[in-house]
Design goal:
Distance between the termini: 7 Å
Mean pLDDT: 88
Number of strands: 9
Number of domains: 1
Largest sheet: 5 strands, antiparallel
Number of helices: 3
Radius of gyration: 14 Å
Amino acid sequence: MFTYYGNHGLGDSARIPIGHGLTVKNINWNEYGHVENINTSDNFPIEMTKFIVVDDKLIGNLSSWFYSFKNSYFVYDMTKKELTEFYSKKEYNAFASQNDLPLTNELRTFEQNYRDYWSGWRFWLLP
């Protein structure tokens, strides 16, 4: 239960392990998820309302109640540890189409991702 994959964060926070030792965290079940130790070109931590993990890539929007990001979308390659940012939805969708990645309408909320990850057999293993 206290391992990377078992720490679901019941209580004030919730966590989703996304691979490579990274987790998307959410405090008090608000709409914003964040990833620690990865900063945007604005030097702010990644904060988002919608995201998806595909092929060792975290893809999401940059949205925060606290920070003002200059870009709107990002792709973080967890294998290469590289962050690519996109100014607009149109710019990201063009990149996604060329690289066989999900489009912006396929991104999911933290709650949707949490339920997908922790449902089924994992739910029965929660402490």
